[in-house]
Design goal:
The structure is a homodimer of 336-residue chains. Chain A is built from 12 helices and 11 strands. Chain A has 336 residues and is an alpha+beta fold. Chain A has 2 domains: 1-62 and 309-336, Hypothetical Oxidoreductase Yiak, Chain: A, domain 1 (Orthogonal Bundle), CATH 1.10.1530.10; 71-181 and 225-304, Malate/L-lactate/L-sulpholactate dehydrogenase, NADPH binding domain (Ribosomal Protein S8, Chain: A, domain 1). Chain A has a 7-stranded mixed beta sheet with strand order 2-3-4-10-5-6-7, with helices on both faces. The first copy, chain A, is globular, with a radius of gyration of 20 Å. Chain A starts with a strand and ends with a helix. Chains A and B meet through β2, β4, β6, β7 and α8 of A and β2, β4, β6, β7 and α8 of B.
Chain lengths: 336, 336
């Protein structure tokens, strides 16, 4: 295994903040983005936290991410708003879109913000937590560059288009954050580096056979959609919705550009406090999760956990021990 | 293979209509339900059309479906309505909920109806087509009785909770209608009857090993969620949302009752004509589908089709040749 260093969250955030200021983000936005990259890492989502930070900076340097652009409202009707991300940073654009969707839902019960010409939002769960911690239900998704084939096809015309659903629960949240591919390319690269196979099929090899070998999938560039034809279909529909609701670029358009930028995203938020039964919701939720936790595990040493549940343990550990970072990645960041 | 008869759609609808009138549905509702069961069969979804009709009648006879109950509005705030299905027929309740969500979306851009105490809506795609054919985007889902385990578990505490997304396209629609299990129990029974294995894993056998044998899955009652932990997580979140938004029963509550009734459902609709870019949407859609159709198929004899595309061919064929029905099922229906 490669060398790991443990970086305290505070130190990571300050490092990111300084670098972002040096690369043209204004003060409050640099702080917001530094917090998001750090928190994603604290929660164990390193692929969309510390590991991805150098690429974010490089996208600013090449101009694919405009460090100073802010999103602007294009159109509004009732509980729907269409925003132009103006190619600004994906995380700050997504935070802004989530805020607007929350505001709309407070006025109308439900609100929808569709955002065109934005950039990679890193970990989609970030915005789910943002809304759910304040009592809102969040349903959001993004399109991506083509990185997954249609069902039965060999070339990548679909994105893996992550879908996020978040629900307030006790003082925290239940957060599902799932791409439409069984494994991300980040997960494949990590497994390959560790010389490990996946526990279930992750894609096809060059011969068109299903395989658990990450190296074979990286070679064929044919990751497996979740549920085969089902995940491929869901990916297509999420891309279509993001594109037509925002008036932005589809996966097909983004893929023409080689570098992934100018994404389309959707943020649907529901204000639970506006519902007739809002005072009963905590009890309903408690009953569902209590029953779920009574599931009989196949392996009796393993607990059955809901999406987002294990994050709490990782968060606590990383806040105590520092965030584990590949030494060579941290060294790269120190030179940015 | 068992004997098949071909029943003209008109004859099937009239037969259903007569039987529904005889079992207590009033005239217009009997006609609506007869049409839905017939159209589902015309579109090739026999498991939620003609094959399921006898069970629908039996649920009326046992009182789990109240033939004369109509849904009532419980609460309204802005673009959200909460309805009580009063245990009426699932299909007519869902049509009503979709109409209300469409109306809300025309007023507010987006509308959400959450429906408690309803019954099985048969083919969820029905309501997707209903909305999309009139120019609306539809996102809806239902919970079900427990029929799928949590990830890593052996007992069925999750439903397969079908999710439907529909988008208007040309004069028809793109309609995704997918349960969270890789195969439905109906598909398992059919494959077992034909003595066929599935092309991909469909669940676990009694030893806890993945299998493509439908008989082994029917024995273990452990179907596979799409994408393993991902589909199980999505199922849980869809159940929670349906339950808290409607104030109805969760899968956990429904499962206590042995017979599946009293479901919770969500209908989110967006009126595309209310968007700033609405006149450009047909072009965007056309571009996406044109690119999608250019996918390179692994098997060059096969076309790459979008969700709902192949339905058109089945529809045309069944309208011309009659709907193929297992002889023993049609004989059973003739005696209802």
């Amino acid at each position: 295994m490669p060398d790991i260093v443990r970086i305290p969250a505070k130190e990571m955030k300050e490092m990111f903040h300084t670098i972002l200021l040096n690369h043209g983000l204004e003060q409050s936005r640099a702080l917001l983005c530094a917090e998001i990259f750090t928190n994603n890492s604290v929660d164990g989502v390193y692929t969309h936290g510390v590991n991805r930070f150098p690429r974010f900076i490089s996208n600013i340097d090449t101009g694919h991410v405009n460090a100073t652009a802010t999103p602007s409202l294009k159109y509004k009707f009732g509980a729907i708003e269409q925003w132009d991300g103006n190619l600004g940073p994906g995380p700050s654009n997504a935070v802004r879109a989530t805020e607007s969707a929350m505001q709309l839902s407070t006025e109308h019960g439900i609100g929808c913000v569709a955002l065109s010409r934005t950039n990679h939002w890193m970990r989609g769960g970030t915005y789910g937590w943002q809304a759910a911690k304040k009592g809102f239900v969040f349903i959001g998704w993004t399109n991506t560059i083509g990185n997954m084939p249609a069902w039965g096809a060999t070339d990548n015309r679909l994105g893996n288009n992550p879908l996020v659903i978040a629900i307030p629960f006790e003082d925290e949240a239940i957060v599902l954050d799932m791409a439409m591919s069984q494994y991300s390319f980040g997960a494949m690269e990590l497994a390959q580096m560790k010389n490990e196979n996946f526990p279930v099929y992750g894609g096809y090899d060059l011969k068109g056979e299903l395989t658990k070998d990450p190296a074979a999938i990286l070679e064929s560039r044919r990751p497996l959609p979740i549920g085969f034809w089902k995940g491929a279909g869901l990916s297509l529909l999420l891309d279509i919705l993001a594109t037509i609701l925002s008036g932005g670029w589809s996966t097909s358009e983004i893929t023409k550009r080689e570098v992934e930028y100018g994404l389309s995203q959707v943020f649907v938020v529901i204000d639970l406090s506006r519902l007739g039964n809002h005072s009963l919701i905590p009890t309903l939720l408690h009953q569902i999760i209590e029953d779920y936790h009574q599931s009989i595990p196949q392996d009796e040493k393993k607990n059955i956990s809901y999406p987002g549940e294990r994050v709490m343990k990782t968060r606590k550990q990383n806040l105590t021990d520092g965030i584990p970072v590949l030494k060579k990645i941290w060294e790269k960041i120190e030179q940015l």
